[in-house]
Amino acid sequence: MDFGLSEEQEMLQETIRGFAQNECPTTRLRELFDAGEGHDPALWSALAEMGVAGLIVPEEYGGAGMELLDLALVAEVLGEFAIPGPFLGHALAIRGVMLRGGKDQQAKILPELAGGEQIATVALQEGDAAWTPESWTARVRDGRLTGEKTIVSHAGLADRILVGLDGGGFAWVDAKGEGVVIEDLDGIDRTRPVSRVRFQGAPAELLEGGDGNAWQLLDTAALLLAADAFGAAIKLIDIDVAYAMEREQFGQPIAQFQAIKHTIARMGTDIEPARALFWYAAHCQDAIPDEASRAASVAKAHITDRAMNAARESVELHGGYGFTWECEVQMWFKRIMLDRSLFGTPDQWRERTAVLGGY
User: Fold this and answer.
1) Topology at the third CATH level for domain 214-356
2) Which residues pair with 340 in a beta bridge?
3) What does the H/E/C string look like for 127-188?
4) CB distance 180 to 173 below 8 Å
5) Which of 37-41, 207-211, 285-289, 314-318 has the lowest mean pLDDT?
């Protein structure tokens, strides 16, 4: 049995990786990070032309019709290069419409998103602990949405917002329309800015007709965050190796010191085996739905925790320089911090894993 990627999947990753290396090297990433807008229209447009915006949208609606594993593989590479942009929220909004939208709604909404001209995001979390569907309180009455959501990625850029409702439903809202108030927050990750969004009687369309549920969307979010964190951690290991080979102490590269060798080796052995976790979690969402929730929970909890440990080790390995704004490590460190905390911490996902396992 072959547990590896197909040639097409490997080519997909290499294509995105080659694009990122050419179009968003560290120098360009630094410019975007310092600007803090978390978006480069040229980068997003090029990714959309490559099919990333509509990767999982069915072909009949203008997308590539690919699987969630393919989406996770793209998320890994975007995390590896800390690519700024609305990928996460856009992908989750599409997934939500595919899960809960009726056929007519999908036919109307998905073609607008598949090409990336219309950008969407999701508004789910209502506080540090209020990220589960059971805790959502936003409501639609007589076609009008009221409620408040926090930590909404790229809300100011989005054209449409998928909003989680009390009872686990979803509403589709014009982000630039009446009754939508967006307040930018000072987020940790400058490649993915976040906002607080208040809905004050905003016109909203309920998504009705699909057979999916809200937890399936959160499972997809957990999967994509785990894949992103994995890519970021792998990048930090590469940065650390290069730094250790270049930085000299006592007349020789610090890579010659046993403590440095052991630190980097430990980071690698912590991270690399975790690749299988998000691969399997994505495969389950595509093919083994009964195991999908638990696999996503394990991936989110374990990978983001391991990635955060790798980020801390990376900062320490760089010494005093590692704690400065000038050190490039901080860009991936902060990306991993958001991956770890968004839509639940590792401890919260471990608790869900236990519940799903009957403990």
Assistant:
1) Butyryl-CoA Dehydrogenase, subunit A; domain 3 (1.20.140)
2) none
3) CCCCCCHHHCCCEEECCEEEEEEEEEECCCCCCEEEEECCCCCEEEEECCCCCEEEEECCCC
4) yes
5) 207-211
pTM over 0.90: yes
Distances (CA, A) of 78 to 160, 258, 272, 326: 22, 32, 17, 22
Q: For residues 77 and 229, is the Cβ–Cβ distance under 8 A?
A: no
Q: How far is CA 295 from the centre of its chain?
A: 17
Residue type for position 6: S
Helix ranges, 50-128 (H): 68-80, 87-100, 103-114
Q: How many residues does the chain have?
A: 359
Give the tens place of pLDDT for each residue, 260-285.
999 999 999 999 999 999 999 999 99
Cα gap 133→128, rounded to integer Å? 14
304 neighbors 336 (Cβ within 8 angstroms): yes
Encode pLDDT of 196-221 as tens digits: 999 999 999 999 988 889 999 999 99
> 326: Cβ–Cβ under 8 A, 6 or more apart, which residues?
none
Residue 117: exposed, middle, or buried by beta-carbon count in 10 A (0-12, 13-18, 19+)?
exposed
Average pLDDT, the chain: 95
In the chain, domain spans:
7-114, 120-206, 214-356
Closest-CA residue to 82 (of 195, 188, 222): 188
> What is the mean pLDDT of the segment spanning 116-120?
96
CATH number for the domain whose boundaries are 120-206: 2.40.110.10
7-114 carries CATH number 1.10.540.10: yes
Tally Cβ neighbours within 10 Å of residue 109: 25
CA distance 314 to 319: 9
